[in-house]
Design brief:
Number of strands of chain B: 4
Shape of chain A: globular
Shape of chain B: globular
Radius of gyration of chain A: 22 Å
Helix content of chain B: 55-70%
Structural class of chain A: alpha/beta
Oligomer: heterotrimer
Number of helices of chain A: 12
Number of helices of chain B: 13
Strand content of chain B: under 5%
Distance between the termini of chain A: 78 Å
Chains: A alpha/beta (367), B mainly alpha (345), C mainly alpha (289)
Structural class of chain B: mainly alpha
Strand order of the largest sheet of chain A: 7-6-8-9-10-13-14
Distance between the termini of chain B: 24 Å
Low-confidence stretches of chain B: 341-345
Mean pLDDT of chain A: 86
Helix content of chain A: 40-55%
Chain lengths: 367, 345, 289
Amino acid sequence: MRMIAALATLAALVVSPALAASDVYIGVSAPLTGDNAEYGNYFKTAALLAQKTINDRGGIKGQKLQLLIEDSKADPKEAILIAQKFVSDPRVLAVVGDFNSSASMAAAEIYNDGGLVQISPTASHPDFTKKGEYIFRAGTTQSMEGAFLARWAVRDLGHKKIGTIYVNNDWGLVANKVFAETAKQLGADVVNQESFIPGDKDFTAIVTKIMDAKPDMVFLAVQWADAALIATQMKSLGLKTDLMGPGSLSTENLVKNAGDAVEGIRANAIYFAGDTRSVSADYTKAYAATYGRPPHDHSALTYDAVMLLANAIERGGVDRKAIRDALAATDGFEGVTGKFRFDADRNPVKDFSKIMVKNGKWQMADK
Amino acid sequence: MRILEHPLIVPCVRRAPLALGLAALAAMPQIIHDAYVLRILVLVGIYVLLTSSLNLVNGYTGLFSLGHAAFYGVGAYTSAILVMRTGWSVWVGMIAGALGAAVVAWLIAKPTMKLKGVYLTLTTLGLNIIIMLVFLNWVDLTKGPLGIAGIPVPTLFGRRLSAPADYYYLILVVDVLVVFALSRLVNSRFGRALKAIREDERAAHACGIPLIHFKTVAFVLSAALAGLAGSFYAHYMRYISPEAFSYPETFNIVTILAFGGPGNLIGPIVGSVILISATEAFRVFAAYRMIIFGTVLVGTMLLRREGLLGGREYSFLITWPPRKKVDYGKGDRFLDAAQPPERGA
Amino acid sequence: MLAQQLLNGLTQGSMYALIAVGFALILGTLKLVTFAHGEVFMAGAFVAYTVVSLVGGNLLWAFVLAVVAAGALGVVIEFFGFRLLRNAPHTSSLLVTIGISTIMVNAAQLIWGAETKTFPLGQETGSVTVMGLTFTGLQLTVYGVTLAMIALIYVLLDRTKVGMAIRAAAQDHEAAYVLGVGINRIYSLTFALGSALGGLAGVLVGLYYNAVYPTMGGMMGLKAFSACILGGLGSVPGAVVAGLFLGEVENLAVAYLNAGYRHVFSFAILILFLLFRPQGLFGRKENIR
């Protein structure tokens, strides 16, 4: 018996220095293949860049950061397997992911039960973080963005008659609902609310329908690629109206694709490439240098999510529960997408900046 | 060894491997404590149910339906909505899920079972898309793209079943019962009629088999089992949204069935075990994973188009006492291999 | 508004018709339903995109190479999905094409990446306004190509020897074989032709929406299906009319009902036709395996 105890002590002695010097692991669950692979790749590239940044400056408390990146295909079935894999893997300290709400929410049950922090950069379902105290998000919710935009459109810009187009998924539905409700409360007339199935590329029917109502402004709760198509099709159909959308539009790609069809479009910025704060400017430069293309707000949010976790590990130590508490207590963390603080429901509280396309470039909006 | 041939012992010996296998499956959570592996096994269990049920239509009856995920979805939504709105037991929800899928299938079967070949395939595919779009657009009932979250877990004797091992046992019991029921069904008069329809519809009709009626029954039964799988899925994932029940899911089920081998009871099981665990194992290949999946399907069709275990039927019982090989001639593929001729014949 | 919606429907319908024509040709001759047609369509768009981004704005080369590549893909698909499985049940062919489509979507993702690509061309194609309706240059191109293609197919099938052989093979491949038609060659050729048309449609649709991405073929392939069945299995003019019809129905559904149910309408019409008039608008009653 004593022999065994001695051996165990010996083993512990041999193992523990190895453990102390071992690396810090963060899991990433994202759709690297399938319909949402485009967004999963923003996750992957940004997470790798964050890893490089952290390790270049000496790691987390001297330990190297390692990423375990898994492909969820944005499928809830895959996401829960990954979640279980991460929860069962004692090395993993926290997880970034997933991209869409359905995968993130299905996985959240397991992360929360397993006591492992899950922070989704993009899941926008209002109930996502209510799944438990281990569930966080880095992106702002649509209810915050939608209300902000509605106030901007109605109160500041004075639009009275507004049409909306939204993509019929959880994100678009909530974005549109909150915007429309707030705009109505503020006294505007929301004349049309048109939705389309993700994947549709022909918006002429919707646009024609909206044209008939002659709105002063159209609100687009869509991703940038669809916004580019909608704007182009609006232009060719001869609909001239103000356009506004959430932070998903604030990418140079939109201007590149749609050209002068999006001149004057307004959006709130989640991530703004022209941001002059050093953390943001450095990131923008590093991303473009590493990947040869401009970053996207999803990649900025993912980068922030990894950085937030690294920061929480530095403050809380190598323990899942401590990391959760440290993350929840985050206050004033300078991220690429702004200063971070979490509310009681573990949603970030952030300010938005107002930007618009002027002379073919996103710039700060004058009003 | 003589004792093993005693008439009272023989049935035990014949069932021994099956019993051992079931015991091994039952002991699995005691041996494997890794929740990740258990969750993979639960997923395998769901696909065993899905492919076995599709097998009844696509394997035994020889129809080619491409709408299975729709019934899977109807089961999931029926059960989730019913349990959440009424507060009834999850077990009632599961039965309702199966019934709901059966009712939808029956409504669909009425007109579609008259169709032949590719017409039936395309109609079921179209219906799958339509049903998915209904889930997506009927926001008042299904919450549309937001999906239904917080679906309750089943309770048994006052205990919440929420650990991976609980779900493992639950799906194991369901699978064993379903496969047992199917083994009785396919070897019954009804099952033989289905196979007759598959082999030669006109001959079957001439023998007095009511084609449309039997096809309808097979289709409805198959849908009910898919509904049961969907209901299990809903209470296991605790969150459902429309895209899980879209036609690519049907393609997955069809692929697994085609790979394992339709027309027998073991093919779907083997297909699910191999393809689901391989998909997990190939996770490291990330981007190449689906290419491998597609290549497996193409390869199966080109090299062994009846699937891994297709082309014949198997019994879960072993032959005992060992029998000399009896040549019962060619052209008897309609004979049920699970029921060989009397010993000594 | 109605006139504008009908015009929108016409454009959308032309796209459906474009992709359906190639599909109908394959279906009519080989009696084979291919689930990979949408992916051939996608491949055509990607080849054109690659040519334009490598060589520059010469669209003619993009069209030619896309069509050739799509045709070659068609030959490959015919070989694996049909020639090797000539005597197999039809479901084997169906499954092979499902497998090929999975492979192609994911291969495209590996090669070109998952994000939506746009043609690096100027935005302006000019537009003409007639009686209050606006036609863009691209729209007119789409109409033009659709018409030209229908004419081409018509001439090919009706006025050439190869066309006659294709029609013979479609009617009765055994009899055609006895009469000296090289069936394998004809099947290969038909598949290549149908796929080339699919690739051409891909380039046009990619250009029109200025969006090329790996999963662009999925829904389009299924719409081609619907148009084909609606038009009468394998009837080329039927596919065109049905494609236009579907485009109009969808746009009217969006205009007067809800855009969320747009696809429900095209598939519901498909099912109604299958149930009550399985031979479609123009088809003869004949057996597809």
